[in-house]
Every structure is written in C-alpha cells, then in structure tokens.
C-alpha cells in the first residue's frame, strides 16, 4: 500500500466522484482509477460500487475510510515530529541511579550554556538496564561505571570515587578519620538496591552483620535517610551533602570509575558536542578524595 493510494481514496470519498477527485489531485482519471484498483488488489476487497455516477462506498470501503484517515494523520504527525526533531536536536542520556542528580544537573547546565538548542531526555536505570537500552538504541549515551566494561574504545572516563561509609553528622562515628568494617556490626544500615557491588556487599555481611532497616532505590533517598540519623550506608564519596559525613573504610579499599559510554559508529553531531563539553567540565566541586 502506497501513500498516494490513500490520498486517491480519501479524495474520492470527500468529493463523491472519481472525476472531481482527479481534478483536485491534478492527475488524470485513468491514473486515479488505476491507483484505486491497485489498492483494492492489495487489500483484497472492493472499496467502491461500480456503475453509478457517484462514488458509493461498499461496507469494506466505509470501514477502510476510517482506517485510511488514521493512517494518513499518523503519517503527517510523524513528519511533523521529524521536522521538529531536525530543528531541535535531541540527546538521550541514560544515567545510573547511583549517580548523584546534582552531578548530572551541573554537567547538563554547562552543556546547555554551550548548546542551548539541544533537548535532553534523561533516563535512569541499573547497570544492566542502561547497557540494554544503549545496545537497542534507546539512549545515545550512558553515564555508568566503567569498571569491567567491555567497550573501552567507546567510553570516556569522567572521575573516580572511593566507596566509603556515610553517617549522620551527629553519629558517634562522624568524628573518626577512618572506620573498620567491624564498626558496622549491629548498626542500623541502609541498603542501596542498585549498588553496582550489591552482591559483593552481601558477601561482606556474612560475618559482620549490620541491622538492615531500610532499602532505597536512589542515592538522594539514601542521603536523606542517613542525614536524618536513621542508619549508615556504604556508598560513593561525594562533597557538600548536607547532614552527611563520609568516612574511609580502612579494610575495604573499594573505588569506582565513572564515565560515559556510547555505541561505536553512532556518534551523532549532538553526541560529539556533548563529549567535547564533558572533556572540559570541572568536577571538583561535586566529589573529592581525602
């Protein structure tokens, strides 16, 4: 089925005759009739009753009239969306749920100062979810951990973070320079459900048993729970988190490398612009290492 056939069909139903439809569309009547015949062959139905002076729809024609309008409207709407997309480029950016939103917002702010016409669509997910979305082309870039990632040639390292203990500023451990894993024994603990080392954390707690009191899906939730004094958590080290102190764990020297990953061969102009911006971005005010 071709679009011109839909236009022929709808013009006939609107004008009531083949000749008037041909005049409206600036085509010959034989060409119009041939187009309708091909359409009927494709659909394997008869759309118009033959022999009368007016074009009268068959029952199948009446049903198809409604469907044809929907098909043509959807086609025209798609064209409009594509034109808008061309006029306003879109960057689809995926991010781990364990990335602090302030970190991402600061980067986006810098980028939009340089490329104000770009529309940014944000998607969050787990490590595996973002990998699938990138592979399927649902996102253009993902901010994720690079440790163990299999595509180093299509990645850009942004920063490294230690995994440390987060406690409330009022907690007895808050004044310590370092802690030991044993210090977590029987302490109220907040699990980060999307931690990239979640299974590894589970193994650590076979001998040291903190008291799991909350499980949280996003970093911002963990911050709030910790700041309220409701529990401790092992998480990446950030700066300027109100009410939270981050303390290195002497016998758990873990860290993560955070970066951007994209698909090889799919570097659009807007992706290239974003990568250029990221290469000059200052991350110093968002995280630190002692």
UniProtKB/TrEMBL annotation:
InterPro entries: LysR_HTH_N, LysR_subst-bd, WH-like_DNA-bd_sf, WH_DNA-bd_sf. Pfam families: HTH_1, LysR_substrate. Keywords: DNA-binding, Transcription, Transcription regulation. SUPFAM superfamilies: Periplasmic binding protein-like II, Winged helix' DNA-binding domain. Residues 1-58 form the HTH lysR-type domain. Belongs to the LysR transcriptional regulatory family. This is LysR family transcriptional regulator. It comes from Floridaenema evergladense BLCC-F167. The lineage of its organism: Bacteria, Bacillati, Cyanobacteriota, Cyanophyceae, Oscillatoriophycideae.
């Amino acid at each position: 089925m071709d679009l011109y056939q839909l236009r022929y069909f709808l013009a006939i139903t609107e004008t009531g005759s083949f000749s008037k439809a041909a005049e409206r569309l600036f085509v010959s009547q034989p060409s119009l009739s041939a187009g309708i015949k091909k359409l009927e062959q494709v659909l394997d139905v008869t759309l118009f009753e033959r022999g009368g002076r007016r074009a009268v729809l068959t029952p199948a024609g009446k049903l198809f009239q409604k469907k044809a309008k929907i098909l043509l409207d959807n086609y025209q709407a798609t064209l409009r969306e594509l034109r808008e997309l061309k006029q306003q480029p879109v960057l689809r950016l995926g991010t781990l749920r364990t990335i602090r939103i302030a970190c991402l917002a600061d980067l986006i702010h810098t980028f939009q100062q340089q490329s104000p016409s770009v529309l940014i669509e944000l998607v969050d997910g787990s490590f595996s979810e973002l990998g699938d979305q990138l592979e399927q082309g649902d996102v253009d870039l993902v901010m994720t951990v690079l440790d163990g990632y299999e595509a180093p040639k299509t990645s850009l390292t942004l920063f490294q973070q230690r995994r440390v203990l987060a406690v409330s500023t009022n907690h007895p451990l808050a004044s310590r320079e370092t802690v030991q894993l044993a210090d977590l024994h029987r302490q109220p603990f907040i699990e980060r459900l999307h931690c990239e080392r979640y299974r590894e954390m589970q193994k650590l707690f076979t001998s040291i048993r903190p008291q799991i009191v909350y499980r949280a899906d996003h970093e911002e939730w963990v911050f709030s729970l910790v700041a309220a004094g409701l529990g401790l958590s092992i998480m990446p080290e950030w700066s300027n988190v109100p009410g939270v102190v981050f303390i290195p764990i002497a016998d758990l020297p873990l860290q993560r490398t955070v970066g951007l990953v994209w698909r090889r061969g799919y570097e659009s102009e807007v992706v290239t612009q974003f990568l250029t911006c990221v290469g000059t971005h200052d991350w110093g005010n968002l995280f630190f290492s002692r």
